[in-house]
Amino acid sequence: MAADFYSQLSRRGDITKSKQTADTIKYILSIYPWWPKNMDYKVFLQGSYKNNTNIGSSDVDVVIAFDIEKSCYKKYDLYLWNNLRKRTINALWHYFGGNKVIEGNKSLKILDYCQVIDIDVVVSFIF
User: Fold for domain 15-126?
Assistant: First the structure.
């Protein structure tokens, strides 16, 4: 039993799929018709896939970081963050379907991406 457990821990998740995941999120935001065109942002991996420490059952952590300095918005406020988070949720719902996107307090979870992995999406600001 212990050998099976350690064998599972030693199996790495698909690195190609994790990179594809971040690229898919970028694509979704770029085609969403109600996405603010004047908002600069970056999409990148965070956590175990970024650090190459993932195991087969790890979810992929993706960060969407909005750059206030490079946008027409000159300051951060809670209204702006809530607005961008809602737009992100709507874009993901339109692409994946509402039953695949779950809104949590800290992140958005996309279930069974490519029938393989779950994705946690964190909406944040660059300061």
Answer: Beta Polymerase; domain 2 (3.30.460)
